[in-house]
## 1
Amino acid sequence: MKMIVAVVQDKDSNRLTDALSDNNFKTTKLATTGGFLKEGNTTFMIGCEDQYVDEALEIIKKNCSQREQMVAPISPMGGNADSYIPKPVKVEVGGATVFVLPVESFFQF
Ligand code: 2BA
C-alpha cells in the first residue's frame, strides 16, 4: 500500500476531489499553506494499493494546471524600505507536487 501526498492549488482542489472519487479513490484533504508564497493550497492524502498509484497520478496530472503567479519580493536586508519599490516577479506554481510514501500498516477501527 502507498500513501500519495499531493500539494495542489486551491483552484484545482474541487475538480480533483470529484475526479478521484469518480474513480473510487478515497481521499482526505488538508488546508495547507505554501512556505514560499504563504498562500493557501490544498494537500490531498490518498491511500491506495500499489497497483492503483499510476492511475491516481494520471488523474492528478490531468486535473491540476500549471499557473503563473506574481510575487512581490520583500525589501532587501539593510536596504532603505522607503525608497524600495518592489517589482513583482513571476513564479510558476503547480500543477501538483506529489510524494508517494510506503505505508507500513493500515488500520480502521
Ligand atoms: P509554495 O512554497 O508557496 O511555492 C509556490 C511556488 O513558488 C512553487 O511552486 C515554486 O514555483 C516557487 N518557489 C517555491 N520556493 C521557491 C524558492 N525558494 N525560490 C523561488 N521560487 C520558489 P511549486 O514548486 O509548484 O510548489 C507548489 C507548492 O507545493 C508549494 O507552495 C509548497 O506548498 C508545496 N511544495 C513544493 N515543493 C515541496 C517540497 N519539496 N516539500 C513540501 N512541499 C512542497
Note: The CA atoms of residues 3 and 101 lie 5 Å apart.
## 2
Amino acid sequence: MGKLDKLSVFISLVLRHKPDAAGITLDEHGWANVQELLDGINNTKRKIDIGSLEEIVRTDNKQRYSFNEDKTLIRANQGHSIPVDVELKEEMPSEFLYHGTADRFIKSIMEEGLKPMSRLYVHLSKDIETANKVGKRHGKPAILKVHSGQMYREGIEFFLSENGVWLTKRVDVKYLEQMNV
Ligand code: HQG
C-alpha cells in the first residue's frame, strides 16, 4: 500500500469510527475541522499536509470524503459507526439492489435479515459487480438480491450517500433472495 493509501485508511478510521485516534472531535453532521485533522494526524507518527489531503480526497476510488465549500471542514460520506447525521438524501431505489457479504454470514442473514452491525446503516450496492467487491472484503463472497422497490412501496426509507452507496436501516429476510454467482 502506498503512503497516501495508508493515510486514507487512517483518515477513514478517524472520520467514521474513532476521531479520538487523531485527538479530534466531529460535529453533529460528521464534520472535522481540516486544520485540526492535519495537526492531529501530524501528532501521530504520520506526516500529512493540505496538498496530500486534497489529493487523497480527489483520487479516492470510492469518493469516501467531502470538503465543505471553503475547504475548512471535511467528512466521510458514509460508513460511520458513530452517531452523526451526514444529511443523507432520501431517495427512491431501483427495483433491486444488491448486498455483498461473505459466504459464512449467509445462514445467519437468512435467519435474522440484514442488520447494520457496527455501522449506522446496512450498505447496499446498485450492481452485482460492486456488491461482489464489498463481499470479497470479508472472505469468499456471496451476493444477496434485495427487493428494494417492494420495501420502498411498503414505506421503508432509503438514502443515497454522496458517493453512491444505498443505505437503509435493516432488511427483513422476506426481501432477500440468494443469488448464484
Ligand atoms: C454482515 C465498504 C451475520 C454484512 C463498502 C457484512 C461498504 C450479518 C458485515 C461499506 C448480518 C458487516 C460497508 C446478520 C449483516 N448476521 N452477518 N444478521 N447482517 N451482516 O463492513 O456492508 O471500503 O460493516 O453482510 O464499500 O460489508 O470501508 O459492512 O458482511 O460501502 O469505504 O455483517 O464498507 O466501504 O460488515 O461494508 P461492514 P459492509 P469502505
Note: The mean pLDDT is 97.
